[in-house]
């Protein structure tokens, strides 16, 4: 006779998995920013880094935050401490990365790049259109920075306010008000005078403006107070390397390239300025430098003033071409001016280059559904494929805890350059308050685990957490960012449930390793509409259509990858499939694509359709290319944004591919082929209820189960199909391949026997906090926050003595736990759990009394948000047990040997 737990092991014999799965490398393990708010001592460094390693982290990047004075950043004391910390990381087997700047926004070096070099401060291009000979440009604001609060403004600007000066005329044009064409534009630059004022500038034209005509003046100005640089200038990029990066290299010496292996840049970009007279298609002021004028005229063969006018005014058929040439040139100059010096620095020191640009889609699937207030064309935030060509490893930015575009796009751009998958930086913004920087101290381990799994299924190799904290800040100080406590919380290592983190890290690292070196079965290619984005701007329908394609495909359980136009032009067509970037597609979708880059694209599209491929369009159909006119015939067109039902009808046109998976709930899934012609199938039950799935593959299959929790796998078995019961939040990894000769019936997996009875433990509990004090009686059907412990965040200790009238095999079922629990029975550890279902096997218990202790961890929200403006209407948060525990009884049963 054996216990239920022993029987389960016998039914599914497991064997040790290879090291790549059982003990994943650091590149698969969670990474984290380590926020420095002051200089830590060597003892503090070693203690925290050891803790980070023991909790499952593989890579650490030190990031100096706003609480650390700028005067300390890159000081001799800072660099000495930095080198000591990296050396300790090496001793502990951790990988280090070099986060390249103070706080964020790469290129400013904590203000050092522009100190003594005012000409390198960001210079912007502004414009105004008047129907009189005089006008002004004033009321310049930085709403993007202002939304983050005064402390961020003080960091970005001397005195906390952007002030502009050194005004220069760039171009002045007379043109008809209605639909001007290039032939009717008159350059009157020499007749316009610019005079700076305290608020901006005034301009005057020495002639008259005919009725029905307009004067548009373009002027540049330097932000006199900004610490941000002009990314167009190679001198600025090189000076950042000299004053912001070389000091690290000098201090680290032989610590590069081991254990410090890579350089990470973060959201380089100018201020997103608006002003009172702003009009036209372009939503923010772009950077300006004289070299831009020459480069744009060379690329376009058109006078610079005319090209500038096309950015804000429709000039007829030439508009799209001129805009695309301007933004393409502008972006290339930023690549040359800033990213190339970074790449050269990395090469000199044996480092790989990674990092991420501003991603306007962060937290969303729509291309501009995240940072929707900005125009991404003024910063490196549109040409994701082009920028990735400069990186050695792809990295993207993700926000909060839902599925989103970033990892899928990151994996896609990596595959366009012969790599795969991506680093995903995951940061947290507040949802209980409008002050987003206050973060989410209410983050639960279940939420973190689910999002980490979700990101891996969407294309992440490594999740980079934002962040681990050096300190948890100060009480009685609710200033955002200045008080580390509210610097994009949570600092995971100050969460009461932190001891549970290692289980999450080990499981998700094994999941990531399981997905490595595979090719997704993604039958749909989604076209990235770069030139439409440049020509039309972020408010155009392409941004929404793109997002709806992504979501509707996901709702149908259909994987997809994003491809750029260059990859499409280089694609091959074989067997009616589009072969791109190592993948093959049965269909290509164009989301409201109005402008293409080249007429050559139409050739490959035509060949694909002629070979039997599916070409789907939605919204605007392509009207032209930057180098000529074109004509495209799609096999299906959707006038509106696609929804799940529309996509279902389109997918029915495609031949079946891969296994058939039927289920009723919300199941995340990823299917890919590996080098041994197995399919790797990952299933994740995102719902709150168990779900029954049926997996079929041809007439039968061979299969293995890989256990990401234990690091083991089963031997190959055969079945006609698999019947799987997925518990809530359960993750399953399978390898399977078709085997017509497979014997056996449907294989039931993960089905648990039903208990013979259940007994509620609803009375007699005592409670005390980990801070000490007397044990008190407590109810277990409501949290401790309503029983006298509203402000308590930590570990609550529940104890109960219960009696059994006979020996039994028992599982403890905790129907509702906020948020994690460790169980001890009769003084021995029984197990721990930080996500549902909260069930712990107690083993075979004898008749008589038994002592049960539950150590329940809540989140830090009740402690850290108490008395602050960030508590929100839901405070205090639910904590501890909120439903009576149950004992599930199982009768001993025989096991086939």
Polypeptide structure, described:
With about 900 residues, the chain is an alpha/beta fold. The protein has five domains: about 25-95 and about 405-515, no CATH class; about 115-235 and about 270-315, no CATH class; about 520-645, Class I glutamine amidotransferase (GATase) domain (Rossmann fold, 3-Layer(aba) Sandwich), CATH 3.40.50.880; about 660-745, Sandwich (Immunoglobulin-like); about 755-890, Galactose-binding domain-like (Jelly Rolls, Sandwich). Helix content is about 25%, strand content about 30%. It is built from 20 helices and 47 strands. The strands form ten sheets. Strands 1, 17, 28, 29, 30, 31, 32, 33, 34 and 35 form a ten-stranded mixed β-sheet that branches. Strands 13-12-4-3-2-16-15-14 form an eight-stranded parallel β-sheet. It has a six-stranded antiparallel β-sheet with strand order 38-37-39-45-42-43, with no helix packed on it. Helix 3 links the parallel strand 2 and strand 3. Helix 7 (about 235-250) runs parallel beside helix 10 (about 320-350), helix 10 (about 320-350) packs across helix 15 and helix 13 (about 445-460) packs parallel to helix 14 (about 500-515). The longest helix is centred in the middle third of the chain and has 30 residues, at about 320-350. The radius of gyration is 30 Å and the shape is globular. It starts with a helix and ends in a 7-residue tail after the last strand. This is Carbohydrate-binding protein. InterPro entries: Class_I_gatase-like (IPR029062), Galactose-bd-like_sf (IPR008979), Ulvan_degrading_GH (IPR053161). It comes from Rhizobium lusitanum.
């Amino acid at each position: 006779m054996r216990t239920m737990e022993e029987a389960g092991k016998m039914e599914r014999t497991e064997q040790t998995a290879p090291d790549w799965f059982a003990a994943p490398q650091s590149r698969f393990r969670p990474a984290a920013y380590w926020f420095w708010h002051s200089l830590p001592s060597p003892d503090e460094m070693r203690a925290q880094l050891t803790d980070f390693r023991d909790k499952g982290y593989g890579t650490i990047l030190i990031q100096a935050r706003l609480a650390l004075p700028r005067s300390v950043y890159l000081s001799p004391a800072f660099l000495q401490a930095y080198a000591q910390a990296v050396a300790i990381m090496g001793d502990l087997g951790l990988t280090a990365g070099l986060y390249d700047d103070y706080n964020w926004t790469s290129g400013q070096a904590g203000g050092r790049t522009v100190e003594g070099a005012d000409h390198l401060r960001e210079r912007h291009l502004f414009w105004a259109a008047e129907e009189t000979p005089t006008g002004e440009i004033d009321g310049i604001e930085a709403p993007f920075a202002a939304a983050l609060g005064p402390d961020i403004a003080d960091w970005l600007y001397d005195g906390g306010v952007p002030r502009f000066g050194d005004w220069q005329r760039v171009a002045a044009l007379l043109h008809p008000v209605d639909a001007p064409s290039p032939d009717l534009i008159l350059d009157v630059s020499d007749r316009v005078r610019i005079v700076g004022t305290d608020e901006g500038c005034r301009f005057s034209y020495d002639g008259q403006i005919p009725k029905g005509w307009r004067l548009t003046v373009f002027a540049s100005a330097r932000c006199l107070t900004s610490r941000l640089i002009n990314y167009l200038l190679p001198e600025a990029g090189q000076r950042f390397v000299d004053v912001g990066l070389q000091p690290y290299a000098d201090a680290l010496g032989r610590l590069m390239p081991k254990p410090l292996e890579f350089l990470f840049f973060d959201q380089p970009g100018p201020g997103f300025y608006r002003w009172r007279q702003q009009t036209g298609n372009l939503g923010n002021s772009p950077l300006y430098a004289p070299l831009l004028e020459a480069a744009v005229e060379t690329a376009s063969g058109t006078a610079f003033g005319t090209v500038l006018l096309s950015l804000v005014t429709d000039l007829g058929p030439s508009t799209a071409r001129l805009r695309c040439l301007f933004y393409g040139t502008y972006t290339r100059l930023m690549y040359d001016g800033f990213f190339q010096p970074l790449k050269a620095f990395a090469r000199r020191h044996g480092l790989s280059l990674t990092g991420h640009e501003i991603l306007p889609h962060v937290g969303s699937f729509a291309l501009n559904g995240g940072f929707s207030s900005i125009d991404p064309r003024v910063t490196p935030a549109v040409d994701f494929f082009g920028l990735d060509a400069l990186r050695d490893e792809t990295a993207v930015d993700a926000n909060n805890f839902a599925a989103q575009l970033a990892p899928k796009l990151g994996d896609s751009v990596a595959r366009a350059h012969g790599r795969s998958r991506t680093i995903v930086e995951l940061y947290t913004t507040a949802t209980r308050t409008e002050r987003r920087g206050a973060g989410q101290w209410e983050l639960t381990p279940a939420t973190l685990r689910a999002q980490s799994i979700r990101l891996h299924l969407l294309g992440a190799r490594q999740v980079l957490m934002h962040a681990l904290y050096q300190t948890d800040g100060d009480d009685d100080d609710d200033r955002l960012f200045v008080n580390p406590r509210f610097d994009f919380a949570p600092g995971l290592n100050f969460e009461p449930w932190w001891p549970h983190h290692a289980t999450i890290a080990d499981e998700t690292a094994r999941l990531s390793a399981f997905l490595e070196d595979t090719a997704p079965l993604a039958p749909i290619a989604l076209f990235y509409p770069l030139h439409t984005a440049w020509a039309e701007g972020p408010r155009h329908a392409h941004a929404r259509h793109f997002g709806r394609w992504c979501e509707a495909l996901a709702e149908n359980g259909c994987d997809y990858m994003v491809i750029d136009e260059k990859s499409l032009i280089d694609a091959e067509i074989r067997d009616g499939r589009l072969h791109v970037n190592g993948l093959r597609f049965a269909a290509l979708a164009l989301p409201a694509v109005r402008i293409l880059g080249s007429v050559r694209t139409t050739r490959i599209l035509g060949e694909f359709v002629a070979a039997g491929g599916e070409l789907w369009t939605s919204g605007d159909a392509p009207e032209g290319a930057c180098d000529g006119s074109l004509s495209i015939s799609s096999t299906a067109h959707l006038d509106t944004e696609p929804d799940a039902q529309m996509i279902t009808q389109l997918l029915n046109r495609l031949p079946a591919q891969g296994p058939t998976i039927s289920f009723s709930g919300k199941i995340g899934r990823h299917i890919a082929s590996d080098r041994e012609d197995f399919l790797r199938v990952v299933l994740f039950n995102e719902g709150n209820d168990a779900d029954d799935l049926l997996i079929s593959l041809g007439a039968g299959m061979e299969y293995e189960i890989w256990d990401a929790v234990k690091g083991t796998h089963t031997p190959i078995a055969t079945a006609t199909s698999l019947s799987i019961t997925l518990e809530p939040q359960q993750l399953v990894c399978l390898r399977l391949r078709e085997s017509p000769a497979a014997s056996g019936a449907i294989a039931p997996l993960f089905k648990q026997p039903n208990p013979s009875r259940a007994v509620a433990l609803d009375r007699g509990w005592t409670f005390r906090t980990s801070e000490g004090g007397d044990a008190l009686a407590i109810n277990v059907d409501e949290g401790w926050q309503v029983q006298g412990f509203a402000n308590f965040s930590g570990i609550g200790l529940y104890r109960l003595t219960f009696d059994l009238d006979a020996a039994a095999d028992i599982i403890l079922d905790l129907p509702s736990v906020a948020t994690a629990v460790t169980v001890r029975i009769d003084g021995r550890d029984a197990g721990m759990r930080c996500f549902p279902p909260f069930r712990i096997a107690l083993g075979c218990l004898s008749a008589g009394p038994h002592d049960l202790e539950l150590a329940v961890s809540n989140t830090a929200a009740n402690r850290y948000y108490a008395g602050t403006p960030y508590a929100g209407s839901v405070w205090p948060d639910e904590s501890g047990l909120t439903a009576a525990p149950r004992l599930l009884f199982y009768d001993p049963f025989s096991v086939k040997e």
